[in-house]
């Protein structure tokens, strides 16, 4: 039986060939997208930024009624020298916040990575945060500030490895990194 005598068979063969070409194109496109370095870099950037936002929130939020949980969150959000400093100062933070009876909450207003070295697993971040401190019998006091930080990729994901106040205006003077020595924000002070 020839293809001229059976147009239905000819159309089926053309459709099958077209389907094979489309399947090959789709497979190649999928493979290229799945192995795209730009997509991996974008995912790392998004993960690092999300972790930085959460960590800055955690390290600037502390409630005297749930002090142990709050300080545990601080430690879970940090790594490296910052984690060591938090552990070293934990007893003092706890005493100070209990005595003051304060509740401190943080809201990240905006955040951006200023540098990402995906291979080294570190990123610098600039965060604008509103910190509200409520003391017994007083109205809540809110303060907005900019913070510079660094996040480092660990086995448990990205964690804050440095945090400090960003210089304001023209007063930067020296190396902005000097202020990132691992301070933990206001934390109820």
TrEMBL record:
Keywords: Membrane, Signal. Its main location: membrane. Residues 1-26 form the signal peptide. It comes from the Bacteria. The keyword Membrane applies. Residues 171-189 have a biased composition (Gly residues). It is found in: Membrane. Residues 158-189 are annotated as: Disordered. The keyword Membrane applies. This is Mce-associated membrane protein.
């Amino acid at each position: 039986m020839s293809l001229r005598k059976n147009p239905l068979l000819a159309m089926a063969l053309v459709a099958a060939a077209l389907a094979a070409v489309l399947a090959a194109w789709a497979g190649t496109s999928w493979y290229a997208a799945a192995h795209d370095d730009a997509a991996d870099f974008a995912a790392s950037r998004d993960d690092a930024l999300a972790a930085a936002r959460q960590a800055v929130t955690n390290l600037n939020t502390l409630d005297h009624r749930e002090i142990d949980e709050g300080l545990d969150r601080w430690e879970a959000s940090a790594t490296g020298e910052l984690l060591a400093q938090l552990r070293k100062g934990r007893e003092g933070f706890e005493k100070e916040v209990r005595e003051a009876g304060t509740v401190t909450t943080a809201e990240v207003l905006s955040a951006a990575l200023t540098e990402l070295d995906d291979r080294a697993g570190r990123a610098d971040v600039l965060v604008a945060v509103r910190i509200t401190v409520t003391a017994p019998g007083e109205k809540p006091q809110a303060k907005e500030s900019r913070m510079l930080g660094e996040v480092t990729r660990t086995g448990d994901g990205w964690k804050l490895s440095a945090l400090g106040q960003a210089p304001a205006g023209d007063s930067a003077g020296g190396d902005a990194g000097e202020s990132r020595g691992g301070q933990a924000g206001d934390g109820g002070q």
